[in-house]
Write a structure and sequence with these properties.
Strand 3 and strand 4 form a beta hairpin. 46% of the residues are buried. This protein is an alpha/beta fold. It is elongated and about 70 Å long. It contains twelve helices and 14 strands. Helices cover 37% and strands 20% of the residues. Bound molecules: S-adenosyl-L-homocysteine and iron/sulfur cluster (SF4). Iron/sulfur cluster (SF4) binds next to helix 4.
């Protein structure tokens, strides 16, 4: 029989699995604590489980290791991992250090089907969704590697998390579980390009991460040029879904705005964005574009970015994101596991 990946199980699922194999369900809690809180991957080291049970678990379950294929570190301490997944494909995860806070930016897909024109991941094509164990494993293997506990999670790596909805939600449950990583929902942020059904579904979940919407343009006309999926999910559909999300959840939304020279950086753009943000009572995060080799877009001049942020800030909370890990291309939108996808970029 093929062994099952342990990291695919929520605790409730593992309790069911234990029962089905004649074990009390509290075994699931014990195993969770070993794996997620102590970083132990080997059943033989789980000493509060009987010897027979440990042998049985080895037959049934596995935690296939990720290989760190490449690790880059930047001057500010940011680490970029290129992981080889146990059953093929490569993904990137980024770990950032801010005082006591250690944040990991996880990938949710191999590549991304959305294809935003300014995004390295999007322009490198799409291979597949990640399984839950591949999402949860990024945290486990990064944490074991650095030897410190990760405190915050952002779903801002490769891929569109709401296009891999079920696996991402399961991962969120494992991350949040008191006996899992025990990371509160307010210390997780999910960033989406605006998948309307996904936003609606997320509003009804028991555990909800903070929501960031990658708006990037004040109008459909501009957004159509840089975010191809805007044809399917235009602002006129996304914005009502976000208003509804706010009503149901009472959680503040962040609007992410990648500012690009000559595309979305005028005074008029800033004013319209400000009005949208007010309507949503959202805060705005202006992200100067990170130029991606091979793509034509550039960030605006510093003064233009500041002028833009100043106009938005007249009525709305706004910040300009300072990229971490710039020189190792670990910043937003620069993640691209080059090994297999590269050919597609320059086709
Ligand atoms: N697919 C999701 C999450 C991953 S992208 C989304 O798009 O929201 C995470 C963030 O990086 C998004 O806000 C995205 O727009 C931004 N980003 C993509 N390419 C970028 C680039 N070249 N420079 C700066 N930010 C970029
Ligand atoms: Fe995908 Fe997000 Fe990149 Fe767009 S910005 S291509 S949605 S990862």
């Amino acid at each position: 029989m093929k062994k099952k990946e342990l990291l695919n199980f929520t605790k409730e699922e593992l309790q069911g699995f234990m029962k089905a194999h004649g074990e009390p369900s509290y075994r699931a809690s014990q195993i969770f604590r070993w794996v997620y809180q102590k970083g132990i991957l080997d059943f033989s080291q789980m000493t509060d489980l009987g010897k027979n049970l440990r042998a049985k678990l080895r037959e049934l379950l596995t935690i296939s290791p990720f290989e760190v294929k490449k690790l880059l570190s930047s001057q500010d301490g940011t680490l970029k991992f290129l992981f080889s997944l146990p059953h093929g494909d490569e993904i990137e995860s980024v770990v950032m250090f801010y005082g006591n806070r250690i944040t990991i930016c996880v990938s949710s897909q191999v590549g991304c089907p959305v294809g935003c024109r300014f995004c390295a991941t999007g322009m490198s094509g799409f291979r597949r969704n990640l399984f839950t164990y591949e999402i949860v494993g990024q945290i486990l293997f990064a944490q074991n590697y650095i030897g410190k506990k990760i405190t915050n999670i952002v779903f801002m790596g490769m891929g569109e998390p709401l296009l891999n909805y079920d696996n991402v939600i399961k991962a969120i449950h494992i991350i949040n579980d008191k006996e899992g990583y025990n990371i509160g929902q307010r210390r997780m942020t999910l960033s989406t390009i605006g998948i309307v059904e996904g936003i609606k579904q997320l509003a009804k979940e028991k555990i909800r991460p903070n929501l960031a919407f990658s708006i990037h343009a004040p109008s459909d006309e501009i957004r159509d040029k840089i975010v191809p999926i805007n044809k399917k999910y235009p602002l006129s559909k996304i914005i009502p879904a976000l208003i509804e999300y706010r009503k149901i959840t009472h959680r503040k939304i962040t609007l992410e705005y990648v500012i690009i020279k000559g595309i979305n950086d005028t005074i008029q753009d800033a004013r319209i964005l400000r009005d949208i943000a007010r309507k949503l009572r959202a805060k705005v995060n202006v992200i100067p574009l990170n130029p991606v080799p091979g793509l034509d877009f550039l960030p605006p001049e510093e003064e233009t970015i500041e002028r833009f942020a100043r106009i938005v800030s007249e009525r709305v909370e706004v910040s300009i994101r300072k990229s971490k890990g710039r020189e190792i291309q670990a910043a937003c939108g620069q993640l691209r596991a080059e090994y297999k996808l590269k050919e597609k970029v320059y086709q």
